[in-house]
Amino acid sequence: MLLQCSCLSQFFAEAVLILFGRRYAAFMATPRDRGNQHFSAGEYAEAAQCYTEGLEQTRGLPCMSTDQAAQRSTLLANRAACYLKLGQLAKAAADCRECLKHDPCHAKAHFRLAKALPPDDVAAGTAIAAAYALWDAAARTSDIIETYEAIQHATATARSRKAAPHAVALLDLPTDPSRKVATASSWTEVSDAIKRGVELVVLKPGTYTTTTVPPVPRYGSGTGSYTLLGLGDVLLKPSFMGSHAIWLPERTPRVTLVNMRLEGNGRCAAACASGSGAQLTMVHCRVEDYSEVGLLVTDEASARLYGCTFTRTTGQAVEVRRQRRHRRCCGEAHRAWLSLARYA
Question: What is the DSSP string of 54-80?
Answer without folding.
Answer: HHHTTTT-SS--HHHHHHHHHHHHHHH
